[in-house]
Amino acid sequence: MDCKEEIDLSAPGPSVIERYFTRWYKADVKGQACEDHCILQHSNRLCVLTLAETHPILQDGRTIKNINYKISNGCSRLNNKVAGKSKRGGQFLTEFAPVCRITCTDETEYTIYSCMRGRLLEVNEDILINTSLLLKKPSTDGYIAVILPKFEESKLVGENLLSREDFEAVVSKRAADVQAQPS
Question: H or E segment at 128?
Fold first, then answer.
């Protein structure tokens, strides 16, 4: 057997996200143009809620003034307490349950929704202390929350969401529509 094919060992391999997670997208959440969310689903059913790279918060050099996990007077995602192997006690989220509100320094406020059904396992308190994590590393250290869908629903997470290819088609159509508008 002759093995003369060269392998470039200096080339970077796929990232952890690319390797172990499936990306799902929700475009124009609740009818708000370009307010796109991303769900990273791991093979173990855990889902990580992040902002899609096209979200207005991540565009135009915006800066974040405040991130608030308090949804109403009676509901704060920071009070979420999960215990045990079966993750009892986590707040149950529906598809359009608000997870947090993000206010930018220009006073624009964005509500981030769960985009899926499941138990809230944790919120990322690190982004409360260091808001730049959300801007610089939205898919990793700047994630918003971790959600666990019910076992029987875990294979259906992507049913109401867009695949990466479908999302890229939506973004391309948006760009084409903007180009087609008279200036």
Answer: helix 126-129
Per-residue pLDDT of 54-85, as tens digits, reads 999 998 788 999 999 999 888 889 888 888 87
Spatial strand order of the sheet with 98-104 comes to 64-68, 98-104, 109-113
Query: Tens of pLDDT along 107-165?
Result: 999 999 999 999 999 999 999 999 999 999 998 999 999 999 888 777 778 788 999 99
For the CA atoms of 108, 96, 91, 120, the dihedral, rounded to the nearest 10 degrees, stands at -80
Under DSSP, the state recorded for 29 is G
CB 124 within 8 A of CB 145: yes
- Cα separation of 23 and 107, whole Å? 30
pTM of this structure: 0.86
Instruction: Tally Cβ neighbours within 10 Å of residue 145.
Output: 21
> Could you tell me the domains of the chain?
16-150 (2.40.50.100)
Q: How far apart are CA 183 and CA 131, in angstroms?
A: 35
